[in-house]
Amino acid sequence: MIALHAAAHAPLLRPTSLAVGPGELAVLLGPNGAGKTTLIRVALGLLPATEGEARVGGDPVDRLSPAERARRVAYLPQSRPPAWAQPVRDLAALGRFAHGAALGRLAPQDAAAVDRALAACALEPLAHRPAHTLSGGELARAHLARALAAEAPMVVADEPVASLDPRHQHQVLRLLRDHVARGGGALVVLHDLDLAARYADRLLWMQGGALVADGSVADTMTPERVAQVYGVAARLIDRDGRLHVVVDDPL
């Protein structure tokens, strides 16, 4: 299995150490401008660190080829390519490029991986539909299918539920939980504290370019932490054994 490690410093990012391994869904929290996307991009070698290093599976990320890195970590960035008229199946098949596949020439193992990803994302009925005709929720699932088709041990998703309605937000996060249940790992950026409390195994809190807390939901999701990081008052409600976060007013 692959673990993602970063102990690095970059512009807008203070010296920060991060490690995410298999079997956990870690949620990265923090206000806009806290450095969440920068930290992810440094950890994946997409931005240079001014000091320190990032490792994927124990290997320095800057020594990995782009294809090898993509085989180890499937990255779903905040800004995703626009939907073209390509069929949904072809969009998902892009996740196999790191394995040497090409559109129209999928080897049996690549086609099987695409089939599994489409099934996991409940997209089989839409497999031949042009991607640009999908709804926002369907397109989000199609991009996630592309990431899952890579069958990389680690998935890194930057705001994968942004602009989705509640039903599709839960659907996407359940897919990521399923990936973790199968032995994978996931690092996910979220802004919804209630969703983070429901789905995360671990919370990573960022503020001002640095991690200020790292731990379980029970240990770190407190009104004091929410006030410190976000500057808002919050109430935590235990309903039938499940923690709910209700945000009230700015402080």
UniProtKB/TrEMBL annotation:
GO terms for molecular function: ATP binding; ATP hydrolysis activity. Keywords: ATP-binding, Nucleotide-binding, Translocase, Transport. SMART domains: AAA. It comes from the Bacteria. Residues 2-233 form the ABC transporter domain. The keyword tRNA-binding does not apply. InterPro entries: AAA+_ATPase, ABC_transporter-like_ATP-bd, P-loop_NTPase. Pfam families: ABC_tran. Part of the ABC transporter complex HmuTUV involved in hemin import. Responsible for energy coupling to the transport system. This is Iron ABC transporter ATP-binding protein.
